[in-house]
Amino acid sequence: MNAVFSGSFDPITNGHLDVLERASRIFDQVTVTVMHNARKSGKHLFTLEERLAILREVTAHLPNVRVDSFEGLLVDYMRRSDHGIIVRGLRAVSDYEYELQIAHLNREIGGVETVFIMAATHWSYVSSSMVKEVASYGGPIDNMVPPASARALIDKFSDRYGQRIQSS
């Protein structure tokens, strides 16, 4: 059975990667899809192309994982690409409440089931938003994101990291 793990991945974190690696052991193929939302244009730190490149590098060690993007409803993408299951990662109860509504909606409008995978406990505090916040101040991020994400973040905030190194 094939699955889709979708998100903005701005950037992918170790929590995302944990869920993805575990999903790749459960499903025959997992497609990581980056949602492209024209209404959110300019609101992401990384461009769609940058996010796709980071994901390709981060998932290179997973032979049954591919990277793609889509615009529109996830259920429409699922219909077009012959995927049967949506994979969603959960960190806390608050994630579950939100994701449960989306899972019910996706089943109602698209007949698609969702499988939840709990992120490992030691990644439960990590979110893309928090990582970007820490990086924007030149803070340590290496333990929260894969190396490709860390390099991309440090490059985006090179002025902050340069200041941090000079003041050390």
TrEMBL record:
Its cofactor is Mg(2+). It is an enzyme of class 2 (transferase). It catalyses: (R)-4'-phosphopantetheine + ATP + H(+) = 3'-dephospho-CoA + diphosphate. Substrate binds at S8, K40, L74, R88. Its EC number is 2.7.7.3. One of its GO terms (molecular function) is pantetheine-phosphate adenylyltransferase activity. SUPFAM superfamilies: Nucleotidylyl transferase (SSF52374). Residues 4-133 form the Cytidyltransferase-like domain. It comes from the Bacteria. ATP binds at S8, F9, H16, G89, L90, R91, E99, W123, S124, Y125, V126, S127, S128, S129. Pathway: Cofactor biosynthesis; coenzyme A biosynthesis; CoA from (R)-pantothenate: step 4/5. The keyword Isomerase does not apply. NCBIfam families: coaD_prev_kdtB, cyt_tran_rel. This is Phosphopantetheine adenylyltransferase. It comes from Deinococcus proteolyticus (strain ATCC 35074 / DSM 20540 / JCM 6276 / NBRC 101906 / NCIMB 13154 / VKM Ac-1939 / CCM 2703 / MRP). The lineage of its organism: Bacteria, Thermotogati, Deinococcota, Deinococci, Deinococcales.
